[in-house]
Task: structure prediction
Amino acid sequence: MTAPDLDQFGWIFGNNDASSTDCNDLTWGSENSKRSGQSKEETFMVRIRVVEGNANGTGNDYWQLFVNEADNAAGASQVLTNSSDIIITDGANLTHGEPTADLAALTDPTGTWQNGEYTESSDDSEKLDLDQAYYTDFQFAVQFTAGAKDGTTYYLFLRNSDAALTSHSAGGAQVETAAGSTMHICDCINPIFK
Result:
């Protein structure tokens, strides 16, 4: 399978609202805006937006979310389910496979909306058929592991089972871990050693 001719044209981060029972009814940030100060081992949402504009019959591709410390999809990267830094996890009160509706506050491209899908499982082989001029969102519940680097920006991208998407007009979804705590060594006067 080759990389589908789709564009990652947008993204948005959201909170893991415990009161929400619908993956569209969450507290969302601003479109294509970096999320900073994200604590480790705390679940948050990322919604990646893709569009198929060429009607080239690349439907039924399988999707995964992967992470890169570079601002593009090239180079070394890790699929989240196999990553030591960030993983797909369980969201609060939401159901794996639930459809995502188009968020009214987001900019939409030319084309036809197709419901996306919510993923909170290590099974990242979900699929949607985008073989026409359609656009959709894939939403994931993710969290940084304890091993993630402090104060580091990670970039999140969609891919199929073999390769990254062919275009990333919005770049990777940027999320930065919180800065680590600083350890201070006490300056002691006349320490006594026993």
Q: What stands out?
A: The radius of gyration is 19 Å. Residues 7-177 form one domain.
